[in-house]
Amino acid sequence: MEQESVPCLPVLNDAHQVIGLLTRRALRLTVLGDPQQPHAPMLFSNATAATMMSPPPTCSPELSFSDALQAMLRGGQEHLLVVDSDNTLLGVLTHADLVAALGDASAEALQ
Hints:
CBS-domain
């Protein structure tokens, strides 16, 4: 994850439905330990189950920009998994996506 600059990974079941979200930051803290709260590092296989957010933060593809931003701010999340009505993963919406969209909208408004 670190090497490829992947901020999060959705965790799916055998039916490709979203069951969790694993973030790079949370995994790093679990595997390497939090310097402010020392504990024994965990093996990677145990770290996934212990670290993933379940249920994960999700949204529908119809969610508006402002509602997505509010959901992230309210939940303290930087990622929302976009799922359909069967909870099948369609994509990942990130805080960076919202910032980029806001920047694009601002640039267009100035033209």
